[in-house]
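In this supplementary section we document a worked example of the pipeline. Step one takes a protein sequence of length 429 as its only input; no multiple sequence alignment statistics are reported here. Step two produces a three-dimensional model, which step three serialises into structure tokens for compact storage. The input and output of this example are shown verbatim.
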Amino acid sequence: MEPTTQSPPGQGAANDTTTESQERSSKPLPATERDYHTRPSRAKSSGFRIAIVIAIIVLLVIGFFAYRYFTSYESTDDAQIDGHINSVSARISGHVIKLNVQDNQYVAAGTVLVEIDPADYQLAYDKAKADYADARAAALAAGVNVPIASISTSGQMSATEADVNSARAGIEVALHQYQAAKAQLQQAEANDVKAQNDLGRYKQLISKQEISQQQFDQAVAAAQASSAGVEAARATVDAAQQQVTQAQGKLVQAQSNWATARTAPRQMQVTRAREASAVAQVQRMKANLDQAQLNMQYTKVVAPVNGIVSDRTVEVGQNVAPGQELMKVINLDDIWVTANFKETQLREMKGGQRVVIDVDANGRKYYGRVDSIAGASGARFSLLPPENATGNYVKVVQRIPVRIDLDPGSNKDHQLRPGMSVTPKVQIR
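The serialised model returned by step three reads:
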């Protein structure tokens, strides 16, 4: 007999249940039950595939818009705020007696920053003013002399010309008188010859007592009178000849005076040149006066623009020289952004494109536009440009400075300062 194995209580019921389930599973199920068990698995598979397709489409759309967004701008962190740094320097030498500003103080254009001792320049101004007044007086006198000299020289020329003509006429008259005197001398000599001949004949007759003594005496008197007439005529000729010589001398003198008077135009040129020199002296003195006045103004050094005072190096009591830098004034109303973009980022960049600027200092965003692109790379503006014509050349992507102008009124609160780091994004599409 085989031994009988008894199951523990409750275990037989479990085994029966297991056996029944195994038998049920081994039997084919009806059609309705098979559909009930297979439909959920198919639905799950189809829904999963649809979800995958939708996810792929969403990812493609996101990727497309991400691509469009990241390729719609060019950005760089190699950018900073730029502005005009105006150097304030002395235009004259002198002793600083007053300092009106401190570092980081805001000043308006025209504000007196530094005052230089004006005593020496006041004296120079007073002297230049006196010299100018003296030069004006001298020029006035020289100007009055011109018409006076013109009238005088004109009258002198007329008078000397008249004297020449009068001297020539005097010579003519003297020559006529000389000719007349010579004619009278010849006549007197002829009369004297006749009288002397008559006297000789009367002498022969008186010796023969053919004539009376009275007639003889008359002949003697006539002979003596004719001899005296000859002497008088000779004296007249000599006098007439002297008059001719005198008239000729007057002509020479008149011609000399006329030649002197004919230099009047040159004398007028000299007079006008003196007047011009006096006028030039006035202008020179006026220039000295203006320079002295400017030097007086330069004793007060003023701010050239609105801005912040920085890097002040001058102190009260210091002696300054022309051109010596005293401080800097930074105009915060005229600033821009200089962004050094890679050369590969400039393909579609051009003037007028909108820019969004992130500022590291305050975390704010500013807006502007691309103004222009520099004419050379930043390396070309460096102190020691790289030399590429060598055997160990390595191509390096260059950076080109791009100027970006901020929208008007962006820096009204003056928070942006030159040198601040910014990150501009240029909208190229």
